[in-house]
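Reviewer 2 asked us to include a model.

Predict the structure of this chain.
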Amino acid sequence: MRLLRLKIHPPLLRGLALAALAFSTVACKRAAPPAVVAAPAATPDPKILAAARELAAVLDKALTAYNAGDQAALFADFASTATPAPSHRIFTELFEGYYKAEFGKITALRLDTKETVPDPDAGLLVYLAQCERMPLAKVSANFIRENGGPKIMQLRLEKVEAAK
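Predicted model (structure tokens):
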């Protein structure tokens, strides 16, 4: 079997491409726009809501202890495999020496629903916070389920750059 080879000059090829583009543009302009249908409001899963409340209660206790400078209460709900592992050194160097020196006490929190993942087994809570020394910071905590309840795997405070 023999294949036919067509030789098309570049100007003709460009003209065909422009004609195809013009046709598709006219066809699209004549077609009715797609109907916009509002998505039905999602009903939150009660298990997810319960998990979010449970995680928030654990983090609230830890942040209250952070503000009070109470090492035992701060680490009470940390997982046995937390990173870094709870210790007096971590409390004095990280929580008191860095976080308290840099941010101060946390004065207000607002849940960041875009970043929060309220999974009952491996959740993440993210708050935007106001602190004594920092007008805007991010507080985030990773959780795992240990001994039937949520435990903090990691707790972080981070600077948030103001939008320009």
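The CA atoms of residues 85 and 114 lie 28 Å apart. Residues 1-39 have pLDDT under 50 and may be disordered. We have added this to the supplementary material.
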